[in-house]
Specification:
heterotrimer; A alpha/beta (295); B alpha/beta (122); C alpha/beta (282); A: 295 residues; alpha/beta; Rossmann fold; Alpha-Beta Plaits; 9-stranded mixed beta sheet; two-stranded antiparallel ribbon; 11 helices; 11 strands; 37% helix; 23% strand; elongated; B: 122 residues; Nucleotidyltransferase, domain 5; 5-stranded mixed beta sheet; 4 helices; 17% strand; disordered C terminus
């Protein structure tokens, strides 16, 4: 079983629309939405949730005011300024390090496990899907990403599917690192803008840092063909395979508004034709020896 | 003889080797000469979303084993096992614990000097 | 006053709004780019950088001469960032959250702190506009500590505009907490609306007044407007899709540079925000 993770560095370059389009084209695959912070894939996949679980991760300090003598040791030790002058823990500032809980001489601090989201195993018209929802303002998105990818792989293995298509988050931090680890390959969706180029360069560096084979495609190519070419040249220099170009096409927005993939909406649009070519290249790319098998 | 920890799916010599080290169901701690074994559960690490490999390395270290046979070991667990002076044989999935031990006894297992894949990050 | 510009969904135009507003207002303004994973504002502001600082976070270092292998450091650590294994102590600096617990708990005072590089902060200016951004080191997982360092540059005597990262989790919270106003930039699509709702949820948890900007306002549907009305969120600006704006953006040019008439609109936007936060505070 292979896993393709779609990332971008910069947000809003079209990761999710593209992944949904691939879901229309790929045979025997499972889906995984690893953008747990602002998950959108379900808006097109319309999943029927079959199993629902709480995501418990990390702890949070709670001061029991009946036992607290206000000695101030916790405030002194807390590096997050999470404890107020009247000894109440700000749950948003609390890092969950447990230092106050460990040292409180009165044992007045509890350290319960936190529920910081939910995750789901679902069925969609394109196959099984693992997805999640991180609680608003919660931490540990990287852990939830690792978990949901693991569940996605299990779904694929259970039905002996060949491929897991994973929608990754933007950026280069914790959740992105968690979505790249151990992937067969990653497709970077770039856009031909100064920001798109800057962000793509950083995410290429990230993939190299974690030794995940990277491929790139450029969305809205015609907005700035010179920039598009510069991005492709950079990619080749870094051994990142260029998979193709997608023109700016309102079909992506129109399909999204109707909750459809671009192929379901209009499979003869310019966007659809371009994505089909990219998909064919990806299938070949995933077969080449540089891409590793999942175990 | 030094004891060997083999990642396994169930507590038996005929269990398949669990390909994952950190998230293995458990470890058989085997005497390679007599094939006497004990079983340590790794359930607690399995449930962890982070640091599972390090925890599993601690478990193996506590068992007294000096060699680990498994599918793959992530970089952090590798570092931990290495620091504890435990030798690591990898790529032994798709066989039983007994077959892995036989292979080890026959001197056919290369002891790794580097992890064979990255972990799942932060 | 601090205005934080956030969105939930990426690529909706946070940086466009932040840079155009900052440049339109001119003096006594600072722009802090807190999207440290992928900072972009400098590509439009073109600041002259005159200060570069490497930012680190404290992580443990163990003196094995003093260590008695008691294991307390591994016990207190919630992040598996330090373990006692065999006859040694192994810190995993990249997993450390810098809480200092291991150092505090060590009975032999064998643990001291060294630094793990988070990234750099660069500071500069353009025509009187003060500019600061953080750049997360590639491979570093934790962005909130670097974001908090960037925010330390905020000065109370001027207007601080913060360009926040996308999403709704810890890095976004670190970029919005303590702001006087949050400007949410969205687009009128199902993805835009879904992520807007999450962002509004985060702003509500923090209890900060907020308003909306709808970018590419003529592409998509009217569901964002219906939602805004229902939630009583003021729509402070609409930016229609204009290929000229998109192409200028692709070259690193701001709207106010290619269409100077927009400067008035960004000034008016700021006045509206000022009035709204004034009413809130008085």
């Amino acid at each position: 079983m292979k896993e393709l993770v779609v990332i971008s560095g910069k947000g809003g370059t079209g990761k999710t629309s593209l992944l949904a389009a691939f879901a229309s084209l790929a045979n025997r695959k499972a889906l995984c939405d690893a953008d747990v912070d602002a998950a959108d894939l379900h808006l097109i996949m319309d999943p029927r949730i079959k199993e629902r679980y709480d995501f418990e991760s990390g702890h949070e300090a709670v001061i029991n005011s009946d036992m607290c003598t206000q000695c101030g040791l916790c405030r002194e030790l807390c590096r997050w300024n999470a404890i107020s002058e009247d000894f109440i823990v700000d749950p948003i500032a609390c890092e969950g390090c447990g230092v106050c809980y460990y040292f409180c001489p009165e044992k007045a601090i509890d350290f319960p496990l936190k529920t910081c989201g939910e995750w789901y195993l679902s069925e969609t018209r394109f196959g099984p899907m693992a997805h999640a929802r991180l609680g608003i303002a919660e931490e540990n998105s990287g852990k939830l990403v690792s978990l949901i990818r693991k569940e996605g792989k299990k779904l694929a293995e259970k039905e002996s599917l060949d491929l897991l298509l994973t929608d990754g988050p933007p950026g280069i931090g914790c959740p992105v690192i968690a979505s790249l680890g151990g992937a067969t390959a990653t497709l970077i969706v770039a856009e031909p803008t100064v920001s798109g180029r800057h962000d793509m360069e950083r995410v290429v560096e990230l993939a190299a840092f974690f030794k995940v084979p990277a491929m790139v495609c450029i969305n809205k190519y015609d907005l700035n063909p010179d920039m598009g070419q510069a991005i492709e040249a950079f990619a080749r220099e870094r051994n990142v395979t260029v998979m193709g170009r997608i023109p700016f096409d309102p079909v992506f927005t129109k399909a999204m508004v109707q909750g459809k993939t671009i192929f379901e909406f209009d499979d003869r649009s310019e966007g659809s034709k371009a994505v089909k070519v990219i998909w064919e290249n990806l299938v070949k790319g995933l077969e080449t020896s540089t891409c590793r098998e999942q175990s | 003889m030094e004891k060997i920890a083999v990642s396994c799916e169930e507590p038996s010599l005929d269990s398949p080797v669990d390909p994952r080290f950190g998230r293995a169901a458990g470890f058989l701690i085997v005497d390679p000469d007599t094939l006497e074994f004990s079983y340590v559960d790794n359930g607690a690490s399995q449930a962890m979303s982070q640091g599972a490999g390090i925890q599993a390395a601690e478990t193996v270290c506590r068992s007294g084993a000096k060699v680990v046979l498994t599918g793959y070991v992530g970089p952090k667990a590798f570092q931990a096992l290495f620091a504890a002076g435990i030798k690591i044989g990898q790529n032994l999935e798709k066989m039983t614990v007994r077959q892995a031990i036989d292979k080890f006894n026959a001197g056919e297992v290369d002891m790794a000097t580097a992890p064979n894949r990255m972990g799942h990050g932060a | 006053m601090i205005i934080s510009i956030a969105s939930g969904k990426g690529g909706t135009g946070k940086t466009t709004v932040a840079t155009n507003m900052a440049v339109s207002l001119g003096g006594d303004v600072q722009l802090l780019d807190c999207d440290v994973e992928e900072p972009n504002a400098h590509l439009f502001i073109h600041p002259v950088i005159n200060e570069v600082k490497t930012i680190t976070t404290p992580v443990p270092e163990v003196d094995m001469e003093k260590c008695n292998l008691c294991g307390k450091c591994g016990e207190i650590c919630q992040f598996k960032a330090i373990v006692v294994i065999g006859k040694t102590v192994l810190p995993f600096p990249e997993m450390c959250h810098s809480c200092g617990g291991c150092m505090e708990v060590c009975p032999e005072k064998a643990i001291t702190e060294t630094g793990r590089e988070l990234g750099v902060i660069e500071r500069g200016s353009r025509n009187g506009l003060e500019f600061v951004h953080g750049k997360l080191r590639v491979g570093e997982a934790m962005s909130p500590p670097l974001i908090r360092k960037v925010r330390e540059y905020a000065r109370p005597d001027v207007l601080t505009i913060i360009d926040a990262p996308p999403g709704t989790s810890c890095p976004v919270i670190a970029s919005m907490k303590g702001a006087d106003f949050v400007l949410l930039v969205t687009e009128p699509t199902p993805f835009g609306l879904n992520d807007l709702k999450l962002a509004v949820g985060a702003v509500k948890i923090l209890g900060i007044p907020c308003g909306l900007i709808i970018n590419r306002s003529d592409m998509g549907d009217d569901k964002v407007k219906i939602y805004a009305e229902k939630e009583n969120l003021p729509i402070l600006m609409e930016i229609p899709f204009d290929r000229k704006i998109a192409e200028a953006y692709s070259r690193g040019e701001m709207i106010v540079e290619v269409m100077p008439e927009w400067k008035e609109k960004f000034l008016k936007l700021y006045q509206q925000i000022e009035e709204m936060s004034f009413h809130k505070n008085h």
